[in-house]
Amino acid sequence: MESTDEIKTLEDDGISWRTRVLYPTLLGGIVGGGIGRTVYGRQLMSTYATNLAIVTGCYCGAREFVRLSRHSEPDNLVDSAIAGFGTGAILGRLQGGPAGAIRYSIGIAIVGTGLDFAAIKLRPVFKNMYESVVAGDEKKKGGFKWPEWLPIQVLDEEALAAKRAREEALRARIRDLTKEES
User: Fold this and answer.
1) HEC-encoded secondary structure of the chain
2) Which of 13, 56, 91, 174 is the most buried (most CB within 10 A)?
3) pLDDT digit string (tens) for 1-60?
4) How far is it, in rounded angstroms, from Cα 74 to Cα 26?
């Protein structure tokens, strides 16, 4: 039997359960609510939000349980696949019988592992954006700098004055056209 000081927990690894289980579950509920609202309207929004939050919470909890059981690293995709198969089998069996268990286990394993893979690949991008915001406050007044290709840009004083002048000229032309029509 293992002693209590040999048992490894999430906090021992420097990983918070909030970032690995709670936040994805909340995000799953928000996405589920958005999907329910978009597809079926307001009447099924809470149903979709609840269902996707339950699936996400079960999957993330199972992934962390498998990771701790296997003594593996946090971003191991094998843990994600095993957790997806297990979660899908249990939830699918409850939802659709033995045939549902097979379908759900394959589906949740593919989707969950795919999302974990995407999160691993996108983590450096978000980390760079976060670091540019934090370092940007010390280096420049603007803070976060939008990428050049993005149409959303923060204008400086000269660009803002030029934009206001263009808008005023456009309003004047519209007033002239409405006067001519009446």
Assistant:
1) CCCHHHCCCCHHHCCCHHHHHHHHHHHHHHHHHHHHHHHHCHHHHHHHHHHHHHHHHHHHHHHHHHHHHHCCCCCCHHHHHHHHHHHHHHHHHHHHHHHHHHHHHHHHHHHHHHHHHHHHHHHHHHHHHHHHHHHHHHHCCCCCCCCCCCCCCCCCHHHHHHHHHHHHHHHHHHHHHHHHHC
2) 56
3) 444 455 555 555 556 777 878 888 888 889 888 888 888 877 778 888 888 899 999 998
4) 20
What tokens appear for 138 in the block? 């010390």
Tokens 């045939």 correspond to what residue?
99
d(CA 107, CA 6): 35
